[in-house]
Amino acid sequence: MSHSLRVIFAGTPEFAAAALAAIHRAGFAVPLVLTQPDRPAGRGMKLQASPVKRYAQEHGLALAQPTSLRRTGKYPQEAAAAIEQLRATPHDVMVVAAYGLILPQEVLDVPRFGCINIHASLLPRWRGAAPIHRAIEAGDAQTGITLMRMDAGLDTGAMISELRTPIFADDTTATLHERLAEDGAKLIVDALIELERTGKLASTPQPADGVTYAEKIAKHEAALDWRRPAEALARQVRAFDPFPGGTGTLEDGSTVKIWAATAASASDSNKAPGTITEVSSDGVLVACGEGVLRLTQLQKPGGKRLPVREFLAGSPLVAGQRFELPGAE
Questions:
Q1: Which CATH number fits domain 219-314: 3.50.50.60, 3.40.1190.20, 3.10.25.10, 4.10.320.10?
Q2: What is the DSSP string of 47-95?
Q3: Does CATH number 3.40.50.170 belong to domain 6-214?
């Protein structure tokens, strides 16, 4: 089926590529795709194309990778050229998903039907860069996708539609990301079909209450603070899979990545936080500020993620060893 609505798409990671693929498969013309410049990644730090760029190239879609869209920023010439290209590309609406560049008002004003953003939270909760991670970390019972009209603020635009999903006890950022990417793809295609049919999309202003910000995940957050409750650490481990993982540093300075862990109640919780209380093929138990954390999937530097039984075969841990407390001298 083909559609008359022409969609410029702006996005960068897998989450965005799922939406672009759905829009393209549904038969909408995509006269231009915007994505971030290639970035160094992997062990060799070679320049890598974003998932959105790869999709665009595989399907012969026109592509632009401006460093900035702000004339007042560090790259005014690139921004001016990109804005010219937008104006010169006939289109009706722009869809934005995890693009990663700020869109100034001048850009938001170019498409006849404005810009629609696919955001991975139930706004106004978790505006900002890392809504999937932060929802898991905070222990939210549910999250979802919100489509909104973009304005110049950070995720402050009026809401068009939402799709909710529960956060399951074993969800990681990776599993939840996959579900939300599918939901976002479905929601945006429905909205574009509606926009084409009626020439408009109803929207509701975001509530003023309940605003939270999902700060970008920083590498230093990976260090687990054993003084916190085991429940909170278990959520942190799930939130930080696939990036940056949870990290524990033993007293001898060796580090262990922790990829899966569950909270357990402590029978003897008088051990100092960070102390390994028990080691078995079912898990490594570590005393926390409240309860104990059972570590079930671990990785040593340069190694692979391993179930605890296999990990212990190559890297013995023993009861009484201690993990350092981050920030404690």
A1: 3.10.25.10
A2: EE--HHHHHHHHTT--EE--S-S-TTSS-HHHHHHHHHHHHHS--SEEE
A3: yes
Q: How many residues does the chain have?
A: 329
Kindly report the number of other CB atoms within 10 A of residue 203's CB atom: 16
123 is in an annotated binding site: yes
**Cα pseudo-dihedral 167, 170, 172, 174, rounded to 10:** -100
pLDDT one-digit tens code per residue, 224-282: 999 999 999 999 999 999 999 999 999 999 999 999 999 997 766 678 999 999 999 99
Do 30 and 20 contact (CB within 8 A), yes or no? yes
Give per-residue pLDDT as tens, 37-57. Answer: 999 887 788 999 999 999 999
Residue 237's nearest CA partner among 321, 306, 294 is 294
SS3 content of the chain, % helix, strand, coil (to 5): 30, 30, 45
Q: Answer yes or no: is 47 a known binding residue.
A: no
Confidence of residue 290 (pLDDT cuts 50, 70, 90): very high
Do the annotations mark residue 121 as ligand-binding?
A: yes
Phi, psi for residue 46 in degrees, rounded to 5: -75, 155
Paired with 322 in beta bridges are: 275
Domain ranges of the chain: 6-214, 219-314
Give the HSE-up count for residue 144: Cα atoms under 13 Å, Cβ half-sphere: 18
Angle between helices 51-58 and 14-25 in degrees, nearest 10? 30
Two structure tokens written together for 201: 């999309």
Locate tokens 């070679």: which residue?
Answer: 46
Q: Which two structure tokens, joined as six digits, stand for 292?
A: 């104990």
Q: Is residue 265 part of an annotated ligand binding site?
A: no
Helix and strand counts by DSSP (H, E) for the chain: 8, 17
Q: Which residue has the tokens 């110049």?
A: 152
Q: Yes or no: say if 241 and 172 are a contact pair by the CB < 8 Å rule.
A: yes
